[in-house]
Design goal:
Elements (H helix, E strand, L loop, with lengths): L3 H10 L12 E6 L13 H19 L1 H8 L2 E11 L8 E11 L4 E8 L5 E13 L2 E3 L1 H7 L11 H12 L8
InterPro entries: HotDog_dom_sf, THEM6_lcsJ_thioesterase
Protein name: Thioeseterase
Pfam families: 4HBT_2
C-alpha cells in the first residue's frame, strides 16, 4: 500500500520551508520501517522508489510546481528511471535524502535524488525522467518553467544524464517482441 500518511507528513513538515529553485536541493529524512523491507531484511528496491516519492513531492511543492499543476489542471508522470544501489538500508535506519532538478529538454525534466546513511555513505542514487501532462499530452518544460515565473534556460545535460538519455533512445520499444 502506498504510504499516504508518510507522504502527508512530509508535505506538512515542509509546508513553511523556504521556496527553492528547480536546481536547489531539498533535504529530507526517512526511516526504513518494517513494511519497507524485503526477505533479506533490507529496504526493498521497489519501496526505495516509493520513498524517493516522499522526497520528490515536497520538493515539487517548495519549487512551486504543485501550485502550477493545480492552476493549469496539469498532471505529473514518470517516464523513466535509472537507479544505482550501493549500501543496504536496514529496518529502523534513517536516511537523509537529497532531491533536485538536474536538467530539462524539450519534453522531459530530469530529477536527481540520493539517499545517505548516518556514516555519510550514499546508499542509492537515481535519475528520473518526468513529464508534465495536459489534455493534449506532454507540456513542454519551457512552458512549465515560464508558469513557475522563472526566466531560465536549462543548463547543459550532465554527461552521465546525457549518456543515459542516449542509451535509452536506442533501447527497443516495444521490448521483447519474440
Amino acid at each position: 500500500m502506498y504510504p499516504f500518511i508518510r507522504m502527508f507528513w512530509q508535505i506538512w513538515k515542509y509546508r513553511k520551508a523556504p521556496r527553492l529553485t528547480i536546481f536547489d536541493t531539498h533535504v529530507s529524512h526517512h526511516m526504513c520501517l518494517p513494511w519497507d523491507i524485503d526477505i533479506w531484511m533490507e529496504l526493498n528496491n521497489g519501496r526505495t522508489l516509493t520513498l524517493y516519492d516522499l522526497g520528490r513531492i515536497p520538493m515539487a511543492y517548495r519549487v512551486g510546481l504543485v501550485d502550477v499543476l493545480k492552476r493549469k489542471r496539469w498532471g505529473l508522470t514518470m517516464a523513466g528511471a535509472s537507479v544505482r544501489y550501493r549500501r543496504r538500508v536496514r529496518t529502523f535506519q534513517t536516511v537523509e535524502m537529497h532531491s533536485r532538478g538536474a536538467y530539462w529538454d524539450d519534453k522531459f525534466f530530469y530529477i536527481e535524488q540520493s539517499m545517505w546513511n548516518r556514516k555519510g555513505e550514499c546508499t542509492s542514487h537515481i535519475v528520473y525522467r518526468s513529464a508534465v501532462t495536459g489534455k493534449n499530452g506532454i507540456v513542454p518544460p519551457a512552458q512549465v518553467i515560464r508558469e513557475l515565473g522563472v526566466d531560465e534556460v536549462s543548463p547543459p545535460a550532465p554527461e552521465w544524464v546525457k549518456a543515459w538519455i542516449d542509451a535509452d533512445t536506442v533501447r527497443p520499444w516495444p521490448p521483447m517482441q519474440d
